[in-house]
Design brief:
With 413 residues, the chain is an alpha+beta fold. 49% of the residues lie in helices and 13% in strands.
């Protein structure tokens, strides 16, 4: 289609889904235990994943075997339908071992929540083929779509295709021109991963192992029922709440996604605090005669970093719980709450970044050896914190405008 180098992706064969009875028997604690047991493997292959620019096959297959990707699949379709705190617990266990792998896995699991926004028959068909989906959801720049008989024809090139390297499905945002004087209609389209090209573009200084390459489609047909309008889902009034009683599926979309993307920052910061703590007893600054563990300044830095990440985690957990209640509000009242939640999650991510920086500042230049995991955490969290939804200038301006009664000046609400 493009003539550019294609990414070496690994479309699942679909022969390793867990038996339904095993999924039904999984408890939150058992799932967490399974993932914690994988932490040494995930951490040991984080450098290789960075070199490959995707999670290693061994790690990804091991994650599939835990049942983690069933976490947001509704029970009526054979999933776990666990609560946000369980999702946070299990995701953080992955992210502490490798934030890049955690980023990829967290979106792969959470995007099943997006599938719950499609028509009920589509959900039944898709989860009938693949009991959970591994699918990127790409929005920018949006593709273009025109109506054709039986559905839509879409074309576009989308950036930041997190999850695409191991995907069996893809979700693509596309705009339809609705005529003069009318705003375009934005829909999220679903198609099999084999129907798109993935271009090898993800060459990054941080978060390299996420494999978030570009996705290209040209004149691709999407059936009518494999699309949903984004606007109602932004307020939690999409099809998820009509099909499923659990308030999880009627939560507003952007705060839901903000929580997902924030968790790798918490995991990175937690891992950095542990590494910094372990290093204090070993590290003696040049010219000194005692290890850093005895130095009040080093102790205070470690304590500040620990408190920053603890408070950030609490803030993100509270945001996830609050988001489940917003559907009950009017659109006007809900808007200010969505804006506030986005800002407080952005603030939590900045706290995590500052915690990692604090750990690095106290640890000496030896941490920048490529075999030291702390340098990778530092690079990863800088890239994570640059995500548009965590831009503190944008998010705090939106929150401030809302507080004084001004309309938002950004579409990301």
């Amino acid at each position: 289609m493009t003539g550019e180098k294609l990414a070496d992706r690994r479309i699942p064969k679909g022969d390793d889904f867990l038996p339904p009875e095993e999924v039904a028997a999984l408890t939150p604690q058992e799932l967490l235990n399974r993932i914690k047991a994988l932490q040494p493997l995930i951490a040991s292959q984080s450098a290789e994943a960075e070199t490959l620019r995707r999670p290693t096959d061994e790690v990804w297959n091991a994650l599939r075997a835990t049942g983690y990707f069933y976490i947001y699949v509704p029970r009526i379709f054979g999933g776990l339908e666990f609560d946000p705190d369980t999702y946070i617990d299990t995701t953080l266990a992955i992210c502490e071992a490798c934030p890049s792998v955690g980023w990829t896995a967290s979106f792969a699991a959470e995007h099943n929540w997006l599938l719950a926004q499609y028509p009920e028959e589509t959900q039944k068909e898709v989860w009938g083929q693949t009991p959970y989906i591994i699918a990127p959801s790409v929005a920018a720049p949006p593709g273009k779509t025109v109506r054709v008989e039986g559905g839509y024809q879409i074309s576009g090139r989308w950036k930041f295709g997190t999850v695409v390297m191991h995907a069996d499905w893809v979700m693509l945002n596309a705009m339809e021109d609705m005529g003069e004087g009318k705003p375009p209609m934005v829909r999220m389209m679903l198609t099999r991963a084999e129907n798109v090209e993935v271009i090898d573009t993800w060459h990054m200084s941080g978060m390299a192992a996420t494999g978030s390459n570009d996705i290209v489609a040209k004149d691709l047909f999407i059936p009518e029922d494999y699309a949903f309008e984004l606007l109602p889902v932004r307020t939690g009034r999409g099809n998820g709440g009509k099909v499923h009683k659990n308030p999880l599926y009627s939560a507003p979309m952007l705060p839901q996604l903000c929580v997902t993307a924030a968790l790798p920052s918490v995991g990175a910061a937690k891992a950095a605090v542990k590494l910094a703590k372990d290093r204090l007893s070993l590290h003696t600054k040049m010219g000194g005669q005692s290890s850093q563990v005895e130095k009040p300044a080093a102790q205070m830095r470690l304590a500040r970093a620990d408190l920053m990440v603890r408070s950030a985690e609490l803030l993100i957990r509270e945001s996830a719980r609050e988001n489940l209640t917003l559907n009950a509000l009017s659109d006007e009242d809900q808007l200010s709450e969505r804006i506030r939640i986005r800002a407080q999650i952005a603030y939590a991510v900045q706290q995590c970044r500052d915690a990692v920086r604090t750990c690095c500042e106290a640890s000496g230049s030896g941490i920048y050896h490529l075999d030291n995991p702390l340098q990778r955490l530092a690079r990863d969290i800088e890239v994570m914190a640059s995500h548009i939804v965590y831009d503190m200038d944008v998010s705090t301006e939106l929150h401030g405008r809302s507080m004084v009664g001004l309309a938002p000046n950004s579409a990301l609400t």
